[in-house]
Amino acid sequence: MADTLTLDGLIAVLPADTVVTDPDIIAGYRQDRALDPEAGLPMAVVRARSTADVVAAVRWCAANRVPIIPRGAGTGLSGGSGGVVGAITISTERMREIEIDPVMRVAVVQPGLLNAEVKSAVKQHGLWYPPDPSSFEICSIGGNAATNAGGLCCVKYGVTTDYVLGMQVVLADGRAIRLGGPRLKDSAGLSLTKLFVGSEGTLGIITELTLRLLPPQPPASTVVASFASVHHATEAVLAITDQIRPAMLEFMDAVAINAVEDHLKMGLDRTAGAMLVAQSDAPGAAAADEIAIITAAFEANEASEVFSTDDVAEGEAFTVARRMAIPAVEKLGSLLLEDVGVPLPSLPALVDGIAAIAQRRDVMISVIAHAGDGNTHPLIVFDPTDTEQAARADLAFGEVMDLAIGLGGTITGEHGVGRLKKAWLPDQVGEDVMDVSRRIKDALDPDHLLNPGTMF
Amino acid sequence: MADTLTLDGLIAVLPADTVVTDPDIIAGYRQDRALDPEAGLPMAVVRARSTADVVAAVRWCAANRVPIIPRGAGTGLSGGSGGVVGAITISTERMREIEIDPVMRVAVVQPGLLNAEVKSAVKQHGLWYPPDPSSFEICSIGGNAATNAGGLCCVKYGVTTDYVLGMQVVLADGRAIRLGGPRLKDSAGLSLTKLFVGSEGTLGIITELTLRLLPPQPPASTVVASFASVHHATEAVLAITDQIRPAMLEFMDAVAINAVEDHLKMGLDRTAGAMLVAQSDAPGAAAADEIAIITAAFEANEASEVFSTDDVAEGEAFTVARRMAIPAVEKLGSLLLEDVGVPLPSLPALVDGIAAIAQRRDVMISVIAHAGDGNTHPLIVFDPTDTEQAARADLAFGEVMDLAIGLGGTITGEHGVGRLKKAWLPDQVGEDVMDVSRRIKDALDPDHLLNPGTMF
Questions:
Q1: Do B177 and A244 touch (CB under 8 A)?
Q2: Dihedral angle at the C-alpha atoms of B403, B408, B410, B414, nearest 10 degrees?
């Protein structure tokens, strides 16, 4: 990038009111929810309204070798949409169209629509888009695809990639291409759609998604239980998943329970060591069978309070409690937010190991988890003004990932690698896999303009 | 490749009885089930027993710039595993190990095991591997992954890629790498596992797969009906899929019905224009609801005989009939086998359009279909000794793919592009997508040694 580069050329190729140069507004695009201290102020923000806007912006960046940060709603938890000095942030927040075809059971959506808005729009056609990150009310569907986001129902219904049938994506050179389409089966050519899902904006900018929809989820029955210890709770998880795949199986430890109770005052057991929230949406009599299996597994692991309900609203209250865990724990201090996952049988070892790290490093680590699929969110709570504690928190952050890798797990189940976890990626996947990944990156983005610092 | 190249070096790096040089045996590796007239006799066949064997063979080929044809059971229907003159065919037929972890619900399998053997082995642990190509008794799991194979239950349960959690794959330079693993959620790095599934051996040779397993399929109820015309049947398909996603929804036209009846003599209605076989495996009372919806849709479209049964064996007899359709029609002449798919609402237009092509080109085209997901197998029957008819069959083969592309569909829903369909791939996906695909191919296999002529 030449020192003399001005934004005049960029402004000239885009509609009025698209390129943001006001530093006060740009400051709002510096961070995503990961609050990466290394995040920088981008040179400008392009608030695209269309694929054509994204194409024009990327072409200008490519011609001038300006790095590009793709950004959806900015709710990323790995720092993958945070700003970079000298870069242009291309925000898709204004790209909010959706078309639903109830016969084909697909939605064609622009990336800026929020996950909750997609769910709500398809519900009006009697359909269901399953993936449900806890942040579903504030995260964008484009960001969901970029990170291959998960959620609570994924234990039974799979993750974002399982619902992406096609997309339009703008490549690093500004070409917009279409991949896949509204077809349930398609083996024609390389599976590029699946490659772009989860690529965190490093290979292209998704400007449209074709999503597979399901019939509405049957009404779910809910079982909630408190346990004396996290270990009892994780053993109960295995006792359930050995037999059935529930529609939801969520875990909160004592810190999370108390933080949530502080806010919601819904009568959660503040003395419990852990809490599990499980749901079955099996149709008809099968739900009762599953609820019986879940209840028996809870009781066999000394659950102190087991509450079950067929009332959907009552069950939803516990889901809301679980969804609130991250923001509630966030009130206790600054957070380093983990997303480690392990094969299910290693879940107790992971949770026990995290407790050992917390003790050794003398930091608070609250664990919440999508326990049914082995995906946990250890939340490392620290006081950023206490530099020694912050340094210990940083050490713990790495050690939790090392622990997961050692257990055959992953450093990220659903948030993506972003900038915060990229140092651990080679440890998980190995140098050969990094080499293959880099070759693909080099082939599709030879100047490494797309989301520099993320993943690679 | 030097003219003076001998196989001594290859034989030296592999265990005894691994490199096949006997021309009579090699002849058996010339064709796959596509019977591509262009297929050539490979220079030798490596019958690998382990990943190490594949690594050694690929390294030798890479050092000597010898093309490599990866091959599983040789049941491919697009010519992707047929022989190439001067190439080494690496067969995985002897790699037949399987390990099942019932707690994690995964199977770690070598690629040479047949799909039916995988199903049978996991069934002994009370588990289910859903994908079920019609050829499941003779096709290998490695070939299934290489082509992203589908089958009958895919309308409800998805295709091979939805069940591949990880793999070991040998790259073009002979490095063996591991991708993914036994984790239900993993967003760490590019989705390479998904990229290699369906890559038809053009990016690497899969030597091990980690497969996700499900609890056993609930017993299915079956409804079978005959229709006066194919159009009535395809309209019935839409009437069903507008409301529910059945566990199976298969279509046979009059030619297929009669060809199957010739063999099975099970009393199929030889006067019918088409037949549908549908199943519901919804638990409990939900099955009866689905069967009622299916039956009503059949009757609303003037089905002449509607037979339903809760008896699994009785239902399976009709599934067997449908699975037998390709081999039965094959007895009528040589086949050009299509695999075109369209978005569901276009299914009647596709089937009607195929009839028009058959009439215009004066060739017999029998249509069977996984109708519930819009994936059809038009079978073009011709007499290879009648060169004029064979030429018309060739024209029809291309026109059926053109038709599918024109309807927003795909040239291959589950068989892969192979060598026979690659000329149509750019028409479907466009030149920009071909360019992206070629860049990835070039990045991972710069000398284009892996499965030359397939897809690219």
A1: no
A2: -120
Q: Is the ipTM of this complex over 0.85?
A: yes
B122 in any annotated domain:
yes
A136 and A237 belong to one structural domain:
no
Q: For residue B333, is pLDDT > 80?
A: yes
A283 touches chain B (CB under 8 A): yes
Domain encompassing residue B69? 8-91
Interface contact flag, A345 B103, Cβ < 8 Å:
yes
Q: Does residue B311 have a pLDDT over 50?
A: yes
Contacts A185 to B, Cβ<8 Å: 150, 154, 159, 341, 370, 373-375, 410, 413-414
Contacts of B446 (CB under 8 A, 6+ apart): B172
Among B149, B188, B442, the residue with its CB nearest the CB of A410 is B188
- Domain check: are A84 and A108 in the same one? no
Residue A12's CB: how many other CB atoms inside 10 A?
A: 10
Question: Quick check: is A54 in a domain?
Answer: yes
Residue A393, Cβ neighbours under 10 Å: how many? 25
**CATH number of the domain within which A367 lies:** 3.40.462.10
pLDDT digits (tens, 9 = 90+) for A361-407: 999 999 999 999 999 999 999 999 999 999 999 999 999 999 999 99
**CATH number, domain with residue B388:** 3.30.70.2740
Q: Are A449 and A61 in contact (CB under 8 A)?
A: yes
Q: Report residue A304 as tokens.
A: 């102190």
Residue B2 has pLDDT above 70, yes or no: no
Shortest Cα distance, chain B CAs vs residue A266, angstroms: 31
Integer Rg of chain A from CA: 22
Reference A272, options A250, A298, A252; nearest CA is A252
Tokens 């697009």 correspond to: B78
**CB contact (8 A) between residue B242 and residue A103:** yes
pLDDT of amino acid B271: 96
Judge contact between B174 and A426, C-beta under 8 A: no
Assign residue A184 the CATH number of its domain: 3.30.465.10
pLDDT at B73 over 70: yes
- Shared domain check, B355 and B272: no
Asked if B439 lies within 8 A of A436 by C-beta distance, the reply is no
pLDDT tens-place string over residues B375-394: 999 999 999 999 999 999 99
Are B407 and B346 spatial neighbours (Cβ–Cβ below 8 Å)? yes
Same domain, A67 and A137: no
Q: A241 and A373 in one domain?
A: yes
Contact at CB, B198 and A190, closer than 8 angstroms: yes
Residue B3 has what pLDDT? Answer: 57
Same domain, B268 and B303: yes
A443 touches chain B (CB under 8 A): yes
CATH code for position B59: 3.30.43.10
**Residue A1 confidence (pLDDT):** 47
Write the single-letter amino acid at B318: F
Q: Which residues of B touch A443 (CB under 8 A)?
A: 439-440, 442-443
| Low-confidence spans in chain A with pLDDT less than 70 | 1-3
A161 in the same domain as A129: yes
Instruction: Return the number of other C-beta atoms located less than 10 Å from residue A218's C-beta.
Output: 15
Residue where a domain stops, chosen among A60, A91, A122: A91
